[in-house]
Amino acid sequence: MGSRRRSTLRVLGCALLITLQLAYIKMAAAENFVGAEIANIERLLDAERYADADSKALLLLEQAYQQQKIPADEFLSLGVLFLNTSRFEVSKVVFSAALERYTAKGALSKMALTLLHLATSERHLSNYDSSLAYVHRAMSIAQIERDDTLKARLNLELGTIQQQQGKIEIALEPLKQALGYFRDNNMPSEMSLSLLHIGDLYSTLNQTSLAHTYYRDALESIEKANDSRLLGIIKTRLGALLLKTSSPSQAIQSIESGLKHLDVTKDVGAIAEAKMLLGRAFVEQGDTSKGRKLLQEAMAFAQSSGQLKLMQEGRLALARAYMKEQSFELALAEARTGTIEARKHRDLRDQISFLSLQLNAFVSLGEFKKALDIQSVIQQLREALLDSENKSAIEGLQAEIEVIRQSHTLEKLEESKELALAQAEQEKLQTTLVWSISLAALLFTFLIWSRYKQRQQTIILRREVRQQTLTLQEKNEELQAAYRTLEEVSLRDPLTSLYNRHYLESQLPGEIRRSQFSSNQSTDTNKSKQDLLCLLIDIDHFKRINDDYGHIAGDKVLASFAQVLKHVFRLTDLIIRWGGEEFLVVCRQSNREELPELAERCREMVASTPFDIGLEKPINITCSIGFSLLPPDRKDDFEMAWERTFAVVDYALYAAKLSGRNGWVGVIETLNNNENKRTPIDHKFNFTGSRIATSFNNVASIKWPDNLD
């Protein structure tokens, strides 16, 4: 008997070892596959096959969501790869995937680094509000982690964002803080980059001497580090500065020298910016055809990568080239487009530059009334810009004036005091001496007493400081623990522990893009598992429960209802507390044909589950469901897709309630033909046709609402 038991244990042990070995092999194979895919994507980017690289990355993300064991570090490195090749839209999607995984693990340092990369991507796309939000989130983590290097890098990014926003007066402070840290810690590349951006600030203010000084310092700092990319960028910026202050031939020489360094690095974004500057220099030199060709080439890249700032610079240079060629209508068209974009982003400097070009074009065309109107607008913008730039200078001047005024007042008081003392000495010398001796004795006594009290207070303060230090250490530990759960808590409903609308808003854009991309790749939609399904679920007669049993009982029903939904749907599905007694479910990696089955399973589970509300007997409830494919029309963009889908499921839910409740109504898919008879839902949402499913007798028995606000 004993030997048989030992044999059984040996067999079970061997089976366990084999299972663990197979799992390890599977994980290693997954990691090898991801590494090979990333290497393939890098080769496509080097070959400038950007569309193929984008498609590969999105496919890899899709596979990663199916295989949860792929490390987040792989996403981070892939995002950096796209960021360095100026593919900012794709880099955002990849970094968001990495951030989601780091957040789930509670890896604060990696979260902060990913947020910094997201901020850089958004800045290049001129989405400054989003970029600033990412920087502030990362800065909070850096403060908690006490990561001074990360703080300096975030200050550098913050100053760059503010500089590109035109907030010159406040951009200098974070840049100087970053420069100080990088200099103290002997980080030449980062120090050179900080000097470069400070030089850009002074160049924007037309303080060319200061700008040249900072550019030269940046150049000296980076020459020791042998960073070809940064060396090329600095030389092109020096060329841009020379274009303002000296002959175009010197600027061309400097920019072409910078381009040689950049060509080695294959930094397509920096190369496009250098070509833009070189095109401007050729236009200034008089070679407008060669300049226009370079400008149009750089603008095409800026448009493909979504870099609005580079596009605006190109429009400005191209409009000036047209003015030199006396093609005033073409110059006017570019200047108008540039003015509209600058106004959208509240960039006063760009508005003034483009409006000045419009003014010159109208004068050249003889339309003097329009020129006068534009001159008035330019004057208003210049006054607004001057107010913004002089604000800090005025505050500093006021402080200096106040110091001078106070010093004059003190001088007058001093003179009055000396005169009074002299008069008192003349009138009553003896009395003054007596009072002086008394005052000196009193002062000496006061000083001794003050010294004693100060010593006592110092002892007390030291004791309190030690106590406060211990308290702060405890609070800091509590804060770190609380922060780890902050993102999780902020995205969940406290009553049901389900996700809330904020989480849906952060996840849904990426889900819709992935679903649409996968759908376009798949040839057979009936068999694919790439659909997004949307179900809106409402508890029937919930108000009666609150009225009959009280709100505490209603809360218990909501919490239990959430647990039922977790049993019905998968862990990968998004279950959202939408509001009140309404719940929204988004099923990922599903097929549209599963919609009726999912809705019936949910309805039946709710109807057959007793809900305990603290009474002797539990109560029974039912629910009504509206559903749709998300989005009904694959061609819709995200905003249109989500708004339209929610309107469809809300309309279907309302129809289910009118038709008797405890049932479901929904759209499985829309049709591109009108062979079937159109239903009220088709008329309401302008569908050519649709395939409707319902738990009621048939589609004809559905009572559709006449109107739904």
TrEMBL record:
Reaction catalysed by this enzyme: 2 GTP = 3',3'-c-di-GMP + 2 diphosphate
CDD domains xref list: GGDEF (cd01949)
Domain of life: Bacteria
Extent of the signal sequence: none
Coiled-coil regions listed: 462-492
Keywords attached to this entry: Coiled coil
InterPro entries: Diguanylate_Cyclase, GGDEF_dom, Nucleotide_cyclase, Rev_trsase/Diguanyl_cyclase, TPR-like_helical_dom_sf, TPR_rpt
Domain GGDEF as annotated: residue spans: 530-669
Enzyme class, spelled out: transferase
Descriptive protein name: diguanylate cyclase
Source organism of the structure: Alteromonas gracilis
